[in-house]
Amino acid sequence: MVILGIETTCDETAAALVDRAANGTGRIMSNVVLSQVSEHAEFGGVVPEIAARAHVEALDYVIATAMAEAEFAFSSLDGVAAAAGPGLIGGLIVGLTTAKAIAMVHDKPLIAVNHLEAHALTARLTDGTPFPYCLFLASGGHTQILAVRGVGDYLRLGGTVDDAIGEAFDKTAKLLGLGYPGGPLVEKEAVTGDPARFPLPRPMLGRHNADFSLSGLKTALRIEAEKIAPLTDQDVADLCASFQQAVVDVVIDRLRTGLRMFRERIGAPTALVCAGGVAANQAIRKVLHRIAFEFGTQLVAPPPALCTDNGAMIAWAGAERLALGLTDTLEADPRPRWPLDQVAGR
Ligand code: KG4
Ligand code: ZN
Question: How far is CA 22 from CA 1, 260, 326, in A?
Answer without folding.
Answer: 8, 35, 16
